[in-house]
Amino acid sequence: MASLRIKEHPILTVDQHVPEIQFEFNGKIYTAREGDTIASALLLNGIRTLRVHEETASPRGIYCNIGHCFECRVTVNETAEKRACLTPLEDGMVIHSGQRLPTPFKKGEE
Amino acid sequence: MNQLVIVGAGPAGLSAAIAAAKNGVNVTVIDEFMKPGGRLLGQLHEESNGIWWNGVDEATNLFNEAIEFHIQFQFETSVHHVKKHSNHWDIQTDKGMFKSQALLVATGAAEHSIPLPGWTLPGVMSIGAAQVMANVHHVKPGHHGIIIGINVLSIAIARELKLAGVQLESIVLPSCNLLNKEASQPGVVFQKLAKLAHLAPSPLFKMGGFLTNKLSFLEKLVVRSFPKNGLKAWGIPIQIRRAVIEILGEEKVEGVKVADITPSGVIMKGTEKIIDVDFVCIAGGLYPLTELIGVTACPFKFIPSLGGHVPVHNEQMQTPVEKLYVAGNITGIESAKVAKAQGKVAGLSVAHDLHYLQDHNAIDDAVQHVKKMRDHALIQFHPDINKGRNELNGASITN
């Protein structure tokens, strides 16, 4: 399928010569470019699930894209709970999606 | 210590910073995002004179001016808490503590969500999220999507997405549930839509705008006979008689289930169908983002025409709390031009209160400019904004 990157725009200036950078997400290498946020870089690469709900494991992605909803939090270079939409992508960044957490005290679970 | 800390580098914060700094106040502006402009950055619309309002350029111009006046910027910095002391404010951030004599909170607005079955699926996002993705990061929110929620913001952004080359199925209503009463009523939505007639190039909308000002039974007639497939604005069908019942998909959005609805928003059995889309935008409208004011002693007033709970303040953008100021959408949902004009007032007020302002007519002139911008706004987010503003001014006097 065609790329989600906007290459031309009737009004906005779209710079075609932005340097590419590479990053790792859940152990795989992807390419985006300077100026991307983690959120835009992942979307560009077709990745919509940024974490799973800590209790139910249902998938979650970008919701507000301005830092308010906290749905897009990921682990960046071992720092947890970073908002993907507010974090500029850097070359060599290692990103992990949020995982399901154990619920040992929940009623009815082992 | 800073003389003025401004939280928010949007149109209000930037113009406040410039106005204060021009008068000799030393200013630091803090923002969570990595670049200046706030929600200006996503904006892109055609003015009535045919000239494009390009938020990216507006933001760049304001920022360049701010830099000239040696304003300090702290990007990628989140403010967690503010505390008033006798002579200063403590501003706690994730990058450490800032101190200032005066504090201006210009945090703007956030979007209401419209919870629907399936709305947590990846690929469902706020309309503003899609706007920022396309216009700021130059990444399409998806290949083919649908917008839930018909209002001034969703119609404006739909056009922007179209310009960016995104395919849009239509703009529809959310199905009626406990959480979205008004936004799911075709009659209510149409009434609001009619006031936007000047924005959408469609003769029936224009007729609607004319009719609704006259007689409500005609309005009902228009809603009843509104084509199920909608009216097109810039090639995008606006369907006030169709609603999304559920967003479908396993790991991400794969489609939506829609149905026709009666003029009062009741689903018409047997009209359900599934439309394939890879993203969904939810447009629930904007509300003032006031949390930081909530931790101060500043009182609030609930004014629906301004978007909900707003901090009490006067026309000089002073709150009842000494050396605490507000400007922009935190004071009520209006256009970026109004926010910018309010920012100037706030900046001048700070300069005055810190004994820097020489020209005492400057504040009055700036207050008049806010009113002018309000009256000339292309988009009125609410028809009773002036009434709401007057109510708020009354509250600031009694406080």
Automatic annotation (TrEMBL), chain A:
Keywords of the record: Oxidoreductase
Molecular function terms, GO-annotated: iron-sulfur cluster binding; oxidoreductase activity
Superkingdom to which the source organism belongs: Bacteria
SUPFAM superfamilies: 2Fe-2S ferredoxin-like
Protein name stated in the entry: (2Fe-2S)-binding protein
TrEMBL record, chain B:
MF terms (GO), sorted A to Z: oxidoreductase activity
Domain FAD/NAD(P)-binding: 3-165, 232-343
Domain of life: Bacteria
Signal sequence residues: none
Pfam families in the cross-refs: Pyr_redox_2
UniProt keywords, alphabetically: Oxidoreductase
Protein name per its UniProtKB record: FAD-dependent oxidoreductase
Organism annotation: Terrihalobacillus insolitus
